[in-house]
Design goal:
Chain A: It comes from Desulfarculus baarsii (strain ATCC 33931 / DSM 2075 / LMG 7858 / VKM B-1802 / 2st14). Chain A: One of its GO terms (biological process) is L-alanine transport. The complex is a heterodimer. By secondary structure, chain A is mainly alpha-helical. Chain A has a single domain, classed as Orthogonal Bundle (ABC transporter involved in vitamin B12 uptake, BtuC). Chain A is built from 10 helices and 4 strands, in the order ααααβββαααβααα. In chain A, strand 2 and strand 3 form a beta hairpin. Chain A starts with a helix and ends in a 14-residue tail after the last helix. Chain B is α/β, with parallel strands linked by helices. Chain B has 2 domains: about 200 residues, Rossmann fold; about 130 residues, Response regulator (Rossmann fold). In chain B, strand 2 and strand 3 form a beta hairpin. The chains are: A mainly alpha, B alpha/beta. The interface between A and B is large, with 41 and 34 residues.
Chain lengths: ~300, ~400
């Protein structure tokens, strides 16, 4: 029983990262029908920005760890939002203006991801960075379970981020505009909604979430490397698809679903089979429901 | 028009012929040695150590006018190629060094997952190669052209097992390894065999694996911790070690860890910090408290690059010097590259004993050194303190 609950806690922490990153994928996809494959690398940029900001505040400026943490979270989110907007301006918008097919935009996104990865490799070198410990980790042990304050904070952050995003998308005017563009990007400008501004806002939100995930990740797994965003980005994308891409609830749920599956498989079967079994199960699920948990099949409009 | 084309072709062919003839008959001015190193990828610090060490050797010898072979001095030319610590890139780098750059011999790759395939290429293309750091049996097995400077896993695993049994008074253990890494997997398998032969079947309570790019090991660790082993054997690369040790502590594991030589990077403590203090691993040399030539090397390396060299640096120093020794033993530089390579290989095979800074080594028929291993403890200040030395009988 302890073993079971311990793994539930493990899955909740790991799922939080998937969920946070999947939220960014799903927002951009929902509004633009664009799979932003550079998203995992924006997450990596977030972790690095947090690293440099944290070492600077701790070292040169001489702030305390608590203040540093309070400063680096908004700073990182701001920086990654800028990266997201820059990508949109430089790579995606010109293609959209030219009316390029979605396939080319996806390829462009892949390229942007590679540029971010290899730019980091060229600028900072391949050597690993060690993220400083900002909050002293306390291990709470109760009823045979071990949980750290960091783990609880990660889970709480993911839930809070989901709540905020859900509120923005469903309850605010700008959220209404986002849903409007998602519904029909040709008719919505006629209603007086500036599509470019909404799209930029979407990128700010999505990339900000990636930045938040980057900070939390760097604190939980404090070894940073240029390719850290690649695999987790791919898996978070899968999570978003499982949940039903384009739906915020789907991304959140899909993230946790994937983590529970991965950790569950590793806990029961030999860990060598982890990804094999986990993704076979997902494949079977996709056969039955290709649009994911919350997705709705959308027919081509004539 | 047609005539002019023919003329042009003929001229080109003539030029090419001249070039080829010139290339063949002229005696090489330098000694070219290729380095197949892990400058990027999983273990960049390993590549850095290897390159820094080689540069130290090159500068030192070239400052004296070059390496003296048969009464004449030849400057050294070292070519470094990055293998990204990927098997396929290691093979490509080897092919480029052997075929295009025309190196006399190759040092590296360091990690086993690269050294095993690269060794196959070198053996096939008849180019002598020394891997400084690879401990996997397959690197040199059945390959007369491939040598190494490190001891083997089959020697290292019993060293670790015996030490842990004695030090921690352990009866049971658990293992976590990287399934995508030749070294890690082979080491885990060998260790399991050795431990079960020593303590009886079923004493390896958990035998778990993970992938190369994974960062969360909580499921595997929960399994391992639930099995309550006396100690935790972790044959993983240093970047993973830092994550695994931290996560295991967070999940409530309080017992000791033990690792093989893959822990021994100068970067381990930068990544792992206080969580790794007090743990043990087996390795090739201990920098703290070294004497003689070893101390001399450590001091010069530290003065030049600003940190204490790790075992990769020390082994690269030895590997490069063994190779240079072999070239000197040949006694001449043959203009014919393949003849020269053959002569260097024979000279390498004839070196029966070498006094390196990682200790005295004898070579067996397979090209593997027979040398001592040390077990070190990670001290508070991050130094690797010599605890025990184990020599083969």
């Amino acid at each position: 029983m302890e073993y079971f609950f311990q793994n539930v806690l493990n899955a909740l922490q790991w799922g939080s990262f998937y969920a946070l990153i999947a939220l960014g994928y799903t927002l951009v996809y929902g509004v633009l029908s664009l799979i932003n494959f550079a998203h995992g690398d924006i997450f990596m940029v977030g972790a690095y920005v947090a690293y440099f900001a944290a070492t600077m505040f701790l070292g040169e400026v001489g702030l305390g760890p608590g203040v540093t943490l309070a400063l680096i979270v908004p700073l990182t989110m701001l920086a990654t939002a800028c990266v997201g907007v820059a990508l949109e301006r430089i790579a995606y918008r010109p293609l959209r203006r030219k009316g390029a097919h979605r396939l080319y935009v996806v390829i462009t996104a892949l390229m942007c991801g590679l540029i971010l990865e290899n730019g980091n490799l060229a600028l900072l070198g391949a050597s690993r960075k060690s993220f400083p410990e900002l909050v002293p980790t306390t291990v709470y042990a109760f009823a045979g379970l071990s949980v750290t304050n960091l783990k609880l904070a990660v889970i709480a952050t993911a839930v809070a981020a989901f709540a905020v995003l859900h509120f923005i998308v469903t309850k605010t005017k700008i959220g209404l505009a986002m849903r409007g563009i998602a519904w029909d990007s040709f008719a919505i400008p006629l209603m007086g909604v500036p599509p470019d501004r909404i799209i930029v806002f979407t990128f700010i939100l999505g990339s900000g979430m990636a930045g938040l995930a980057g900070v939390m990740f760097a604190m939980a797994y404090p070894v940073l490397e240029p390719y850290m965003g690649a695999l987790i980005g791919w898996k978070a994308f899968i999570a978003a698809v499982i949940g039903g891409i384009g739906d915020i609830r789907g991304a959140f749920l899909g993230g946790f679903l994937l983590a529970f599956l991965e950790i569950g498989v590793a806990a029961v079967f030999p860990s060598t089979m982890r990804d094999l079994i986990a993704f076979s199960v997902l494949l079977v699920f996709m056969w039955q429901r290709p649009t994911g948990v919350f997705g709705v099949a959308r027919n081509q409009k004539i | 028009m047609f005539k002019r084309g023919v003329l042009l072709l003929l001229t080109l062919a003539g030029c090419l012929g001249l070039l080829l003839a010139a290339g063949c008959s002229q005696e090489p001015e330098t000694i070219k040695i290729g380095f197949n190193v892990e400058l990027t990828g999983d273990i960049p610090k390993v590549g850095e150590s290897a390159k820094f060490t080689a540069e130290m050797i090159r500068e030192e010898i070239n400052a004296q006018g070059g390496l003296e072979v048969g009464g004449k001095k030849y400057p050294l030319e070292f070519i470094y190629l990055d293998n990204e610590s990927k098997p396929e890139s290691a093979v490509n780098a080897t092919l480029k060094l052997v075929e295009q750059d025309g190196v006399m011999a190759m040092i590296g790759p360091n990690s086993s997952k690269c050294a095993v395939p690269a060794g196959g290429v070198c053996n096939e293309r008849q180019t002598p190669m020394i891997s400084p750091w690879s401990t996997n049996v397959d690197t040199t097995k059945g390959r007369p052209w491939v040598f190494r400077a490190a001891f083997l896993d089959s020697f290292q695993a019993p060293v670790a097992a015996n030490f842990a049994a004695k030090q921690f008074n352990a009866k049971t253990t658990a293992v976590l390894f990287d399934i995508s890494n030749d070294f890690s997997k082979a080491m885990a398998d060998t260790f399991k065999q050795v431990w079960e032969a020593k303590m009886g079947p079923g004493t390896v309570l958990a035998f778990e694996s993970h992938g190369a790019k994974e960062q969360d090991f909580s499921a595997q660790l929960t399994k391992i911790i639930a099995a309550k082993p006396d100690f935790f054997f972790l044959p993983d690369l240093y970047n993973h070690v830092a994550l695994v040790v931290k996560q295991a502590r967070h999940l409530g594991y309080a017992g000791p860890f033990m690792g093989p030589d893959s822990w021994a990077s100068a970067e381990l403590m930068a990544l792992c910090g206080k969580d790794c203090v007090g743990q043990f691993f087996s390795t090739h040399y201990a920098a703290a408290g070294a004497q003689g030539a070893t101390k001399d090397f450590i001091d010069r390396y530290k003065a030049k690059y600003g940190y204490v060299p790790d075992d990769v640096a020390a082994l690269n120093w030895d590997a490069t010097h063994i190779m240079l020794q072999a070239i000197q033993n040949v006694g001449k530089i043959d203009p014919d590259l393949s003849a020269q390579r053959k002569a260097v290989r024979d000279a390498l095979a004839n070196i029966k004993q070498f006094d390196g800074i990682t200790g005295k080594m004898r070579f067996d028929a397979e090209g593997d050194p027979i040398k001592c291993a040390v077990v070190v403890r990670i001290a508070e200040d991050g130094q690797f303190i010599f605890t025990e030395s184990v020599c083969p009988e």
